[in-house]
Amino acid sequence: MSARTTLADVAAAAGVSVSTASLAFSGAGPISPATRTKVLEAAGTLGYQGPNPLGRQLRSGRAGIVGVVVGDSLRRSFRDPVSIQVLDGLATSIESLGLGLLLVRGSDEPGAEELNPLVATAAMDVAVLLWGATTDSPVLAALRARGVPIVVVEGRVGEGDALIRIQDRTGMRLIGEHLLALGHRRIATVTLPFDRDGREGPADPARLTHMRYEIARRRLAGLRDAGVEPTVVYETPASLVELGTAAGRALLSSPDRPTAIVAQSDLLASGVLLAARELGLSVPGDVSIAGFDGLDLPWLHPDVLTSVHQPLQTKGELIGRAVADLLAGKKPRTRTLDVSLVVGTTTGPAPV
Amino acid sequence: MSARTTLADVAAAAGVSVSTASLAFSGAGPISPATRTKVLEAAGTLGYQGPNPLGRQLRSGRAGIVGVVVGDSLRRSFRDPVSIQVLDGLATSIESLGLGLLLVRGSDEPGAEELNPLVATAAMDVAVLLWGATTDSPVLAALRARGVPIVVVEGRVGEGDALIRIQDRTGMRLIGEHLLALGHRRIATVTLPFDRDGREGPADPARLTHMRYEIARRRLAGLRDAGVEPTVVYETPASLVELGTAAGRALLSSPDRPTAIVAQSDLLASGVLLAARELGLSVPGDVSIAGFDGLDLPWLHPDVLTSVHQPLQTKGELIGRAVADLLAGKKPRTRTLDVSLVVGTTTGPAPV
DNA sequence: ATGAAAGCGCTAACAG
DNA sequence: CTGTTAGCGCTTTCAT
To answer: pLDDT digits over A258-303, tens only?
Structure first.
């Protein structure tokens, strides 16, 4: 019933000492089966549900909790299937470590933004920064000041933080090469945000020098690695289908229409595809479209997006492993996951 | 720095007692501005980041954590925009209470299933069961045994649990009446799961008596309230677009094709709509389609689903309020939210 | 306004 | 194998 019953009560009822009773529950020490049963029986009678986690935590100095810091709004983060899949893998692996997952909203604005107090006060043994950590992030600063070990996903890290990321630059290079081989020369790209300021539209040269987020920067660099210089770099403020559609409309209705559009995410690419359909363009007859992430998007039927696949579930598991390593006192490492280009039905030879 | 520095160290450095130092941080007691600054300065010098949450928690008997128990897989739960929006609202309101949100995977199988140990051991002051709680759920049993106050969302509750839900029976009645008024008589329905056994396809009379989940049962009952007896009750194992498409194909390619299909969720309805398009049927010319939830589904463009809108964000906030109430020792209540029918472009007069 | 003392519930040395 | 003894770091009466 009420959580009033303590280990001491159980011990008293069983006629043993508190430490013995503790051993009966934890099993972390020698104890005779007889006393063990005796204690467990007493517990049953008293309705004792096992050691109070708070006492255990204080004593052991560990909260048994991994703080996962997501973007400024859960809704925004979770609208993205990419985040969800990573989070799912992470949750599974964290759970197998016997740890809980504390979800923390963490705005990433540098400067005078108010910081979610939980970042500074919630009990956590390790923190995972799920996306877009920048070196000047106040979240990062607060966690570091607390001495909490940190795992960064797809961002820039300081000394002492673990980093998990994918080969996105290579992935984008593969897409670029694929399109060049198909004869495309007028290639535009739709990018993820450069910064948190919500800009949307073609980026001018000045804007291109202000790319705070690693992901957009690296994926753009990958395209250039292939020798592609995009005719237009169209920035979006988030990875959303409707923003891709807006970008697609703009790019595809311009007089010097590109023959191929590469989006930095599958969601954006889906939007571009919808825009192409809306404008009555044939894909890939009139325009080729490629994305990034390798999501399963049945509603695009009958089209299947050409995309760079990343192992999202594995990524989550790897984050879990990094958490375990940090907890075990091992040195933080950087791990980079491979990606692969999977050609679908949305890319083909450039129109003549 | 390292988390070694304690309040005692700070107190010593500042030349005050521990209790005074505590007051300097909590502000919960009389303290002179001078000593306060002195303590804070000492803390600054020592790199002390404020009271250790673990000590505070043990002393106060509160973990400052709300456990949110979602379905068996985070991926599955979070693929559903409905869950996400509720979770977003909940996270916001929980955060404003200064509480953390612990995500707990909780399989809901009765019987010999292994229970996620976190349900029994993780520190939490209140638990929220996000979906589909059934009275025989082992999760519910474990939490109740621990004496953790419980908020159930859209499920059945026992005595002493708070319940948050929507008027879904009324909502479905509205849809039924809407379709009847349009002249429809052959109406089929695509439902959410009856149970966790993953069944898919038309439900026979026997199956209809085994509806463990409240949502499917209530929404079906609502349709009947309107006087609609569905020609087919097509059950799906989850609220997913592709399952709706499968259901749509089956229903729409049968010889006695219905003139209207009501799905118990917008995702299912979207799938049905895609199936109709695929089969070259005009919507609503040949078939009317309605959903439930009121999601924003831009990729259905140019169609806009006729749907019953539920206030998802508000629901999340209401859950947060229920949490606060339980924490304050108030009596658990049931709160039912209103819904409204919003007619889109996918329903029209029955074909003659 | 400040300090002393008493635990919150538990685990981990260390004796026995 | 079991009991004794110390705390983990903090907050909170209760004196002063």
So the answer is: 999 999 999 999 999 999 999 999 999 999 999 999 999 988 988 9
Residue A238 lies in a domain: yes
CATH code of the domain in which B120 resides: 3.40.50.2300
Give the closest-approach CA distance of A143 to chain B in angstroms: 10
pLDDT tens column, A10-50: 999 999 999 999 999 988 878 898 999 999 999 999 989 89
> Each residue of A155-208: pLDDT tens digit?
887 788 999 999 999 999 999 999 999 999 999 999 999 988 889 999 999 999
Same domain as A292, residue A238: yes
One domain for residues A179 and A289: yes
Query: In Å, how far is B229's CA from the nearest CA of chain A?
Result: 30
* Span CA (B1) to C1' (D11), Å: 24
DSSP-assigned states of every residue in B10-56: HHHHHTS-HHHHHHHHH--S---HHHHHHHHHHHHHHT--S--HHHH
Residues of chain B in contact with residue A274, where contact means CB-CB under 8 angstroms, are 299, 301
Residues B273 and B186 in one domain: yes
CA B143 to chain centre: 18
Domain membership of residue B56 (yes or no) is no
Is B298's CB within 8 Å of A1's CB? no
Number of domains chain A is built from: 3
Residue nearest to nucleotide C13 (CA to C1'): A19
- Arithmetic mean of pLDDT, A330-346: 96
Q: Of all helices (H) and strands (E), which one includes residue A270? A: helix A266-278
What average pLDDT does the structure give for chain B?
Answer: 91
Q: Find the Å distance, CA of residue B50 to C1' of nucleotide C3.
A: 21
Note whether B200 and B291 are same-domain residues: yes
Token readout for B12 is 């010593």
CA of A101 to C1' of D1 (A): 38
What would the pLDDT profile of B199-215 be if each residue is shown by its tens digit?
A: 999 999 999 998 988 89
- Structure-token pair, residue B263: 């799905």
Question: Using a CB-CB distance cutoff of 8 angstroms, which residues of chain A are in contact with residue B145?
Answer: 47, 49
**Segments forming the whole domain that contains residue A42:** 7-51
Residues of A in contact with B80 (CB under 8 A): none
Q: Tell me, yes or no, whether A183 and A292 share the same domain.
A: yes
Residue B351 lies in a domain: no
> Which has the closest alpha carbon to A130: A148, A105, A100?
A105
Residue A350 in any domain: the answer is no
